[in-house]
Write a structure and sequence with these properties.
With 142 residues, the protein is α/β, with parallel strands linked by helices. Strands 1, 2, 3, 4 and 5 form a five-stranded mixed sheet that branches. A hairpin with a 7-residue loop joins β1 and β2. α2 packs across α4. The longest helix has 20 residues. The two termini are 28 Å apart.
Length: 142
């Protein structure tokens, strides 16, 4: 579908008891080697919004090798994020700081100021706001 993500790392399909080829999607998984704030946020913002969009459309189906599966509106479908390790807190905080610097450099005024000062300054409230936003999103999903 145009404009949304359509690639999922893992999909669990419940097949019917009969020999029909149509099943039903029960779980959709995103996998990451390391779970960190950015990978979790990306999965929620990009993949979960895609899943919701697909579930709202009655004609959505998942095509796979031996058949297809419905993504049935109103039915429970689990969305999960799997990782083999959790990034340590100190590294996660450092990564959030690096991401904030990268995003700030998209503003020409910040770039000019950084060139004049020889460094870039990031307000810690920007990083804190991102973490609070992620926490809020995760709490809403419960």
């Amino acid at each position: 579908r145009t404009g949304i993500c359509s690639e999922f790392d893992g999909v669990v399909v419940k097949l019917p008891a009969t020999n029909e080829q149509q099943g039903y999607v029960t779980e959709i998984w995103e996998s990451k080697t390391t779970l960190d704030p950015r990978s979790i946020m990306d999965a929620i913002v990009k993949k979960l919004s895609s899943v919701r969009s697909l579930m709202e459309e009655e004609s959505s189906v998942l095509v796979y090798k031996d058949g297809f599966a419905s993504i049935t509106p109103g039915c429970t479908t689990t969305f999960g994020i799997f990782g083999t390790e959790l990034m340590p807190v100190d590294k996660a905080a450092s990564k959030m700081k690096n991401i904030s610097c990268h995003e700030a450099l998209g503003d020409i005024n910040v770039v000019l100021e950084a060139l004049e000062m020889g460094m870039i300054q990031i307000d810690s409230s920007v990083i804190t706001e991102k973490i609070v936003t992620l926490r809020h999103i995760l709490q809403e999903m419960r």
